[in-house]
Amino acid sequence: MAKQKKAPRPKAITPKGFRDYFGAEVSDRAEMLHQIAGVYHRYGFEALESSAVETVEALGKFLPDVDRPNEGVFAWQEFDENDTEGKRGDWMALRYDLTAPLARVYAQHRNDLPTPYRRYAMGPVWRNEKPGPGRYRQFYQCDADTVGTASMAADAEICAMLSDTLETVGIPRGDYLVRVNNRKVLNGVLEAMGLPEGEGARDNVLRTIDKFDKVGEAGVRALLTKGRLDASGAYIDGVGLSEDQAEPVLAFLTSKADDVSKTFENLRGAVGASAIGGEGIAELEQIGELLAAGGYGADRIEIDPSVVRGLGYYTGPVFEAELTFEIFDEKGRKRQFGSVSGGGRYDDLVKRFTGQAVPATGVSIGVDRLLAALREKGRMGGRATGPVVVTVMDRDRMADYQAMVAELRNAGIRAEVYLGNPKNFGNQLKYADKRNSPIAVIEGGDEKEQGIVQIKDLILGAKIAESATLEEWKERPSQFEVPRGDLVAKVREILDGQGV
Amino acid sequence: MAKQKKAPRPKAITPKGFRDYFGAEVSDRAEMLHQIAGVYHRYGFEALESSAVETVEALGKFLPDVDRPNEGVFAWQEFDENDTEGKRGDWMALRYDLTAPLARVYAQHRNDLPTPYRRYAMGPVWRNEKPGPGRYRQFYQCDADTVGTASMAADAEICAMLSDTLETVGIPRGDYLVRVNNRKVLNGVLEAMGLPEGEGARDNVLRTIDKFDKVGEAGVRALLTKGRLDASGAYIDGVGLSEDQAEPVLAFLTSKADDVSKTFENLRGAVGASAIGGEGIAELEQIGELLAAGGYGADRIEIDPSVVRGLGYYTGPVFEAELTFEIFDEKGRKRQFGSVSGGGRYDDLVKRFTGQAVPATGVSIGVDRLLAALREKGRMGGRATGPVVVTVMDRDRMADYQAMVAELRNAGIRAEVYLGNPKNFGNQLKYADKRNSPIAVIEGGDEKEQGIVQIKDLILGAKIAESATLEEWKERPSQFEVPRGDLVAKVREILDGQGV
Question: Which of B390, B393, B388 is nearest to B444 (CA)?
Answer without folding.
Answer: B393
